[in-house]
Design a protein that fits this description.
The complex is a heterotrimer of chains A (106), B (164) and C (477).
Chain A (H helix, E strand, L loop, with lengths): L4 H25 L3 H25 L3 H33 L4 H8 L1
Helix pairs in contact in A: 1-2, 2-3
Chain B lengths: L1 H19 L3 H21 L3 H25 L5 H15 L2 H15 L16 H8 L1 H22 L8
Helix pairs in contact in B: 1-2, 2-3
Chain C lengths: L2 H14 L10 H19 L9 E2 L6 E2 L5 H24 L3 H23 L3 H19 L5 H32 L4 H7 L6 H19 L8 H7 L2 H27 L4 H23 L4 H21 L3 H32 L15 H15 L5 H15 L3 H25 L16 H19 L1 H9 L9
Antiparallel strand pairs in C: 1-2
Helix pairs in contact in C: 1-4, 2-3, 3-4, 3-10, 3-13, 3-17, 4-5, 4-10, 5-6, 5-10, 6-8, 6-9, 8-10, 9-10, 9-12, 10-12, 10-13, 11-12, 11-16, 12-13, 12-15, 13-14, 13-15, 13-17, 14-16, 14-17, 15-16, 15-17
The chains are: A mainly alpha (106), B mainly alpha (164), C mainly alpha (477).
Chain lengths: 106, 164, 477
């Protein structure tokens, strides 16, 4: 479908901002480690959406795609390491609660 | 155009659901749903290669990672779950309102998109861009994959349990 | 040829992990030491090549667009020095062969990533290699697998990913405005575009993301926990080079090279620098844990580098680069001494130490030298770099900020000398009577660093001509 690409700019940036707010809120307010990681994932989805939209609008779809591919690989590795750290913490305290972690630490 | 708006609204709704639902498993599944919706958008925006990557990795690998982590850690007991639910609603109930208000407010501003776009590139495929123009990122991808494998092995080495 | 700097450490890791390779021997340690030492020595003797070059691997089809200039050479020198020191300190601290093997592999990954960060010419590649180094550093911080280190790592990971998301959003906006991610293309297209709001938004997002990674106030929440809860060698590595290359070098490169010169951006950087200096110095005064105090001191000194950067003149850039180098040297020296103290006394609480200069004279003496250099006492190296920063501030008319910088030196001197007094001077406590000078590796490292501190101060004109002045040719477009 051929859409006037300039018209797309505003809806996409609007929704990017909204998903960004959801992800940021989820990461900062939650009491659970895994949900913090899910919030970070939501942030990454927002950024992927914005890069692809920008690629379509400026007609640089190939460049945007290569950026997104590299970004997905990097993101997967970082999340895997973060999950490893969460499991390491779980082995110590047997809970995924941020508050329990805080009071045990100090 | 309408199809785009519909998919974007459902993307936001699923993101809200992932943040607000009380069960971690449902959150991970919502993440997979978000990736599938994003894949649809990417197909419509003429980026098929990135769409395939997103589908296979972010809708497949990452939720599997999360679900195996969630299943490795013990669930809460019954009264903890109820207390937890009350806690969550108190903290999270105003998130949808914030999002909707921000969305409507920004829509009111109604920026007229008079963008001076840069020159479009010659019609290229993403594969040629990645291999010919940006080989340093290929090296980067190989490096980070190996670094990730190495890190996961080190993090789990002295465990006694075999996870992966 | 430049890509060798990135590829050789990486290939070493692959070769070391092949099944038939014998891991028990000390070969791995000596090979890595040779690599890092060769990098330091090579960058010391390298002449400055032409402005932007792209190198080709002979007979291959890959053409990495790498760029080398005066700033990159200085960074390569710092990376080489700190990496070899970390190797030596880790060899003294970790005795188990398998853990040493893992540590050296992670170190090679991190150095490979950092070499790439200082050599690339593209904003997105900068992001990719920053993440590679960050992944290696996450695992290094939680190497000991105790609870506090892992909590610190988790907090660092969350903040770092949010910062990366900011950087990527900024890259998306820059792609929209300029259509490319290459440094030169953005630098030429950005001033000519008519979207000032979007350009400012992109610049602001990018600077915020990098400030989180550098640990500047008000984005420094992760830094004290991470530095104090990681093991000694890792603290040295992080404070000496990793958070500086990932955050501060990237800021210097991006603000001076890529983004257009703008008064409001400079004002923002100056205020971030000023905030960092004072808030961190005041926090450092109140600490009783040695490594935590050194962490706040690092934040404070990085604020000075930001002050030099915010001047937006060639002298300011040169001063910032020189202070970068000095901070690497004296902060590494302080952390090496902290490692020695932790090894010998088993604690990092300063109130439980006292009078240690009688049993650990080398550590005490080099620690005094590092403290004086940090506070900017002549004729040590720190004095010259702070003087240059103050002169650069004066020349651009920020008189109040120049005075504040001089005032902050007094604060620096006070908390560092308080540390000296508590730890080294005074009467030797009874339970510390059994301590002796730390192992050969640590002593050698501290002597070498102290020598560099004194030499950089005494031979300042030579260093100015060879290292610092070439940096300024690439400022201001």
């Amino acid at each position: 479908m051929i859409v006037n690409s300039l018209q797309l700019f505003w809806p996409f940036s609007l929704f990017t901002i909204m998903i960004f707010i959801v992800g940021l809120y989820c990461t900062l307010v939650t009491y659970n480690f895994i949900r913090a990681l899910i919030g970070l994932e939501i942030l990454m989805k927002a950024v992927t959406l914005s890069i692809i939209a920008v690629g379509y609008i400026t007609n640089h779809a190939a460049l945007a795609q290569s950026l997104v591919i590299t970004m997905i690989v990097v993101e997967v590795v970082v999340i895997a390491v973060a999950v490893g750290v969460v499991l390491g913490m779980y082995r110590h305290t047997h809970s995924l609660d941020v508050r329990k972690n805080r009071e045990l630490k100090d | 155009m309408l199809a785009f708006i519909l998919i974007l609204i459902s993307l936001t709704a699923v993101a809200l659901w992932a943040a607000m639902t009380r069960s971690l498993l449902r959150s991970a599944i919502c993440l997979a749903m978000m990736s599938s919706l994003l894949t649809m958008i990417m197909f419509m925006l003429r980026s098929p290669l990135a769409a395939v990557f997103e589908l296979s990795v972010c809708a497949g690998l990452i939720p599997v990672l999360f679900i195996s982590t969630i299943s490795l850690t013990h669930p809460l007991t019954r009264e903890e779950v109820l207390q937890h639910m009350k806690d969550r609603i108190r903290r999270f109930w105003y998130l949808p309102f914030i999002v909707v208000v921000v969305g409507v407010a920004l829509n009111m501003i109604s920026v007229v998109p008079r963008l001076a776009l840069p020159l479009p590139e010659i019609e290229k495929d993403a594969r040629t861009v990645l291999w010919n123009d940006r080989p340093i990122e290929l090296l980067g991808q190989i490096m980070i994959l190996l670094a990730g494998v190495f890190s996961v092995v080190i993090l789990f080495k002295e465990s006694g349990k075999d996870d992966r | 040829m430049l890509s060798l700097l990135i590829v050789v450490p990486f290939l070493s890791v692959i070769i070391f992990n092949l099944p038939f390779f014998n891991r028990g021997r000390g070969f791995i340690f000596w090979w890595s030491l040779l690599l890092f030492g060769a990098q330091a020595v090579l960058s010391f003797f390298l002449t400055i090549p032409s402005y932007a070059t792209s190198f080709q691997l002979p007979g291959s089809m890959f053409k990495f667009g790498l760029m080398l200039d005066g700033l990159s050479i200085l960074m390569l020198l710092c990376i080489g020095i700190v990496a070899s020191l970390t190797l030596v300190v880790a060899a003294s601290v970790h005795k188990d062969q398998r853990r040493k093997f893992n540590f050296i592999n992670l170190l090679l990954f991190a150095v490979s990533g950092m070499n790439a960060v200082v050599l690339v010419a593209d904003i997105f590649s900068l992001y990719v290699f920053i993440e590679i180094t960050a992944v290696a550093s996450y695992v290094l911080i939680s190497f000991e697998k105790d609870l506090r280190a892992m909590s610190a790592t988790f907090k660092y990971i969350v903040l770092s990913i949010v910062a990366s998301v900011f950087m990527l959003l900024s890259i998306a906006i820059l792609l929209l405005i300029t259509g490319s991610t290459h440094f030169m293309a953005i630098h030429q297209a950005l001033p000519r575009s008519e979207h000032t709001f979007l350009a400012m938004l992109a610049v602001g997002l990018f600077i915020s993301g990098l400030s989180v990674k550098a640990g500047l106030v008000p984005f420094h929440a992760w830094l004290p926990d991470v530095y104090s809860h990681s093991s000694a060698a890792v603290s040295l590595f992080l404070a000496g080079i990793v958070s500086k290359i990932l955050g501060v070098y990237a800021l210097i490169r991006v603000v001076s090279f890529v983004f257009m010169p703008d008064a409001s951006v400079d004002m923002v950087i100056l205020s971030i620098g000023l905030l960092s200096i004072f808030i961190a110095a005041l926090a450092a005064l109140a600490q009783s844990d040695l490594k935590r105090m050194l962490a706040y001191s690092s934040i404070s000194q990085v604020g000075y580098i930001m002050l030099g950067l915010g001047c937006a003149t060639p002298l300011g850039m040169a001063a910032a680069a020189f202070h970068f180098f000095n901070h690497t040297i004296f902060k590494s020296l302080l952390f090496v001494n902290a490692a020695a103290l932790e090894l010998e006394t088993g604690t990092t609480d300063m109130h439980r130490m006292g009078g240690l200069s009688k049993t650990m004279p080398v550590t005490g003496f080099t620690s005094v030298l590092a403290s004086l250099s940090a506070a900017g006492v002549p004729p040590l190296a720190g004095f010259w770099s702070k003087l240059l920063i103050v002169i650069a501030l004066w020349q651009t008319g920020h008189f109040a900020i120049a005075f504040a910088a001089i005032l902050a030196s007094v604060l620096t001197l006070s908390y560092l000398l308080a540390m000296q007094r508590m730890v080294f001077f005074g009467k030797l406590r009874q339970d510390l009577a059994h301590t002796h000078e730390a192992g050969f590796g640590l002593v050698l490292a501290s002597i070498v660093l102290a020598f560099i501190v004194v030499a950089a101060g005494l031979f300042f004109p030579f260093i100015l001509d060879v290292f610092i002045l070439p940096v300024r040719f690439f400022v201001g477009g």
